[in-house]
Amino acid sequence: MTRRDGTLRLALPSDRMMEGETLAFMEKCGLSVHRTSSRQYVGSLLSVPGVEVLFQRSVDIPHRLDSGDVDMGIVGLERFLEDCVEDGDSLVVLENLGYSFTDLVMAVPDAWTDVRTMANLASYSGSRHSHGDPLRVATKYHRQVGRFLEQHKVPDYRLVHINGAIEAAPLIGTADVVSDLASSGATLRENHLRPLDDGTITKSAACMVANLRLLRGQREKMSAAKTMLELIESRLRAQSYYNIIANIRGDSMESVAALVNENPAVSGMQGPTVSRVFSKERSGDWFSVSVVVEVTRLTGSVDYLRGIGASGVVVTPAHYVFDHESEAFERLKGAVEVVS
Predict the structure, then answer these.
(1) Are 34 and 60 contained in the same domain?
(2) CA 281 to CA 196: how far, in whole Å?
(3) Is residue 325 in some structural domain?
(4) Quick one: which H or E segment has residue 246?
(5) Choosing a second label site near 213 at 20 to 30 A (CA), which of 46, 86, 260, 281?
(6) Residue 93: enclosing H or E segment and its boundaries?
(7) Model confidence at 282, in pLDDT bands (50, 70, 90)?
């Protein structure tokens, strides 16, 4: 793959379902991907010059990142944790992009009615061990599953690598229990399996990852990374907020602001913005109040504003909410500066 100095290469998943979710997410963040055909594996970001988009299979993205083929990428957290080089140059910059949710779980046959926790599983495996019969665990996530079993002191287990149809392994006798991804749990139930009560190994979602070594000293790449992370982070933050605009009659801007501030839940992030309304009706002084509130406080805030005389209440979703700095970029910048 040809390298171009200053061009940040971003890997996006080409898997059918995750590709569509990722492209929709990028568009919502103002990072629409341009490519002349959906069958092409190379594209660009319309709003961020100097970014080359490469579509790769999710299973390949951690390897592409570690080998230096790409600078940044979006992939499932469980896939990155399984395949990245440990203590290498790669870092999770944003752990949860808000889509592609799934859990890596430990599941046992429904018939194992006495095995409901990892402690139960450890005890059961121990009893098998005394008969020289190791517990067989079907999975393709050896690193995470092995560590989880060790943490819970499960003795004498053997990981059985299976790429597809893992849930069928106990039925056909190739394994005793399974560890696989579960979103709704329907596939497990259909195969007469159930997750253990404390058997969640990794709670996964799409995440943003970066190769620190490739970004070190690269001003153009870091500038592009900052723009992407700022837009993504502020878009994710904005999903929790709505903007309320309402007209309230009062004696002055100060008195209206004080009235709104009596309820801290309605006063917004730093306080309300109040401005004079040049009313068509000469029936007292009217002021426009604008506040940004969390979605969980939306209806309560509207009711409170109505209670203090508000009319013409307009609610709009916030598209971006920028903080004083991008936490994700500052974390990336700090890590890049210390990498050897």
Answers:
(1) yes
(2) 66
(3) no
(4) strand 241-249
(5) 46
(6) strand 90-94
(7) low
Which of the 8 DSSP states describes residue 1?
-
What 8-state DSSP symbol labels residue 157?
E
| Residue 108 contacts residue 120 (beta carbons within 8 Å) | no
| Kind of pairing between the strands at 72-76 and 102-109 | unpaired
pLDDT in tens, 22-63: 999 999 999 999 998 878 899 999 999 999 999 999 999 999
Cα torsion for 262, 267, 273, 277, to the nearest 10°? -60
> Same domain for 144 and 230?
no
Q: What is the pLDDT of residue 131?
A: 78
**Residue 189 forms part of a structural domain:** yes
Asked whether residue 327 is assigned to any structural domain, the reply reads no
Contacts of 277 (CB under 8 A, 6+ apart): 247, 286, 287, 288
Q: Is residue 338 part of a domain?
A: no
Task: Please list, residue by residue across 240-256, b when 16 or more beta carbons sit within 10 angstroms of its beta carbon and e when fewer do.
Answer: ebbbbbbbbbbeebeeb
Claim to verify: residue 57 and residue 128 sit in the same structural domain: no
Q: Are 27 and 71 part of one and the same domain?
A: yes
Domain that holds residue 269: 241-317
**Residues 92-144: pLDDT tens digits?**
999 999 999 999 999 999 999 999 999 999 999 998 877 788 999 999 999 99
pTM for the whole structure: 0.89
Give the three-class secondary structure for 60: helix
Looking at 182, 215, 238, the residue that finishes a domain is 238
